[in-house]
Every structure is written in structure tokens, then in C-alpha cells.
Amino acid sequence: MDTLRSLLNWRSLRWRIALLVCVACCAVALTIGLLVHASTRDRSLNEGAVKARNALSLALERYGRDGTDRDLSAGSALPDELLSRLRDQRSDDPVATWYDSTPVRPRMWAGQLYHGQPYAVNVDMTLDLLSRNALDRHMWKYSALALAVVVPLSALAAELPNRRLRRVARTARRISAGDLDARTAAGGGGRGDEVTEISATVDAMADSLHDRLETEQRFTADVAHELRTPLMGLVTASGLLPEGEATDLVRDRVGVLRTLVEELLEISRLDAGAERAELRPVPLAEVVADSLARTGLAARFTAGAVAPVETDPRRLDRIVANLVVNAHRHGRAPVEVEVAGATVTVRDHGDGFPRDLLAHGPQRFRTGAAERGRGHGLGLTIARGQARVLGASLEFANAPGGGALATLRLPPAGA
């Protein structure tokens, strides 16, 4: 289907090259045709003029010898154009010629003043005209035949660079979607052309992004592991402090730091691909309702016809909890959670997701905009990573009536 759509796309580079070749061939054929036509016509008229001159010379010779010649025309029987040329003819060349291009019976006239009277003869040029017309028809016919062969061949020849460009475009789309292992594998074969250069640039960009992402992931994992040991000491020390307002504040901040470190460790495990789902049949509506209850946050829960699913309830609970917390933290009430089929949707009535998040997905340590409120930007990143472990898809959009809308689509049982 994609190949057919590409073939029918008139804006494709293939058809633009074919159109350019067609225009160039038409221009060459028209130029050559006009040149050949003009050259053939001039040669034909010159030969006709020589024949008419010879015929006039013989006719005047017979007329001077015998006094009569039926081939000669004189006086008013001559065309006005020929008479005008005879009056203007140079003295060094007393013979004037004129081509009567009447389509029915074209003729070449040759005239001369003889004893003060104009005399002329004409030569039939019909066969010559038919020969020129036949030559023109053959030229246009074979030019059209050549176009019918050259244009499809040019479209086929343009398919090779077009195919290579499509491969580069597919690779770029995969990289944009997050597949940093995608490469063009163009294998320039020593061509060294522009397409090979573009392919090499895309591959180099993917290598650079892959290296930067790996560096970021290693840094995240190293920071989380290095913070874990002193954090445990802080948790223990805060538990030994005497009760009081200052102690509550310290314990609250230590709890926030502990949650951050745990989230960083979870992200590092997701990045490393170390997480594995333990799938089993679960009652989807009940699991989602229990997750809402454990968050302790208000949400309007509705459940329709639920399809049987096999999933990891612990990871599903993590996804739902993060989505609900994000809706309360960055959106506005009421928060609505709906289960229908194998799909879970969470919607708030705030300002919606920022455009950057919709375009590129959630990014760690980025909430998208200042008005989105406080947070580290890890909740949605973890939710998407856990959805990927479950084989589910997590999509973010803005609801038509306003507010952010997160849609989790779980694979059906047995998928």
C-alpha cells in the first residue's frame, strides 16, 4: 500500500525528474524539428528556384529561335508578386524567382524581362511539398515514440535515488520515535553522492544521540546509587530525632528525597531493560479502583464493559497512580478515570499538556512549562516506561473540552 501510494504521489521526486526529462526532450525535439524543417524547406526552395531558372532559360531560347513557346507566360498571366520582383530586380541578375505556396498546387516561378516584356515559367512543387510534410510527420511521430520510451526509463532511473531517500526518511522517523539503534545502512558503495552524504549524516546524528542518551542514563543510575547509602542514613537519623515541628519538616524533606532517589533507580532499571513483567489475568476495573484508593486523591471513577486482560497488576498500579498524581499536581479538578474494554483514560480539567510534551513525549526533569506546577517530570516518564514493559501504549493528548488526557491501551488477553 505504501509503495502504491508513493507511485501515485505526483509530488514525488521520481515524477519531477520524469517531468524534467520530458520537458527537456520536448524542447530538444522541437528545436531539432524546427531546424530540420527550415533547412529542408530552404534547400527545397533553392533546388526549385534552380529548376525554374533552367526551364526559363530553355523556354526563352526556344522563343527566340522559333518565336513561340507554350511554357512561357507573359503579361497579365503572371502573378503580381513576380511582376513586382521583376521591377525591383538587379541588373546583374535579370531573373526573379517567387514561390507560390498555395496548398493545393504550390509552384516556383522564374521570370525575366525579354525585349521589354515580362516572361516567366513555373515548376510544380507539389511532390516537394508532400515530401516535406511526410518528413515532418515522421519527425513528430518518432519524437513521440522516443518520449514514450525515455520518460518511463527516466522514472525508473529516478527510482534508485528515490528509494535511498525514502530509506533515509524512514530511519529519521524511527530515530525521532525513539529508536536510536536505527541506521540507514545505505552502504554508499563508493558513490560519494549527496544521498550517501545525507545517509552518513543521519547515521552520525543517531550515533551522537545514542551516546548522549547512554551517558545520561549512566549518570542517572550512578547518581541514584550514590545517593542511596547516605539517604538511608538520613532516614535512620530522622527517625531518631525528637518530635517537633522542625523534625516533621526534616522528615518531610527526607521523604521527598527518598521518593526522588527511588524514582531515579526505577528509571535506571527501565533504561537498562532490566524490568520484566509478571503477566496474569486481572480484573481491570477492580485493579484500577484499588490504585485510586491507595493514592488517597479524589477522582471520578467510571467503568464500562471491560475486556479480559493479562497484565502485571503491580506495574499497572504504578502507571495509574502516576497518571492520577500528575493530573492533580499539574491540572485541576475534577479528575476523571474511566475503564472501557482494555483501555484506561485519566483526564483532568486544567490547561492541558504543553505542546513540547505532545510532540516529543515526557522528558525527565521537565514539566513542560512553568504553569504546570512543581515536580521533577519523572512520573510520566516512569509511566511510559512501565507501559512499554507491559507491552501497552500510553498516549498523551489534550481533550476537546479542555484538560490533559492520558490514554493507556493494554494488550488483550492472549495477545
Automatic annotation (TrEMBL):
SUPFAM superfamilies for the chain: ATPase domain of HSP90 chaperone/DNA topoisomerase II/histidine kinase, HAMP domain-like, Homodimeric domain of signal transducing histidine kinase
Top-rank EC class of the record's enzyme: transferase
Major site of localization recorded for this protein: membrane
TM ranges: 15-36, 139-158
Membrane topology: Multi-pass membrane protein
Domain annotation Histidine kinase: ranges: 222-414
Name of the protein in question: histidine kinase
Species whose genome carries this gene: Streptomyces andamanensis
Lineage: Bacteria, Bacillati, Actinomycetota, Actinomycetes, Kitasatosporales
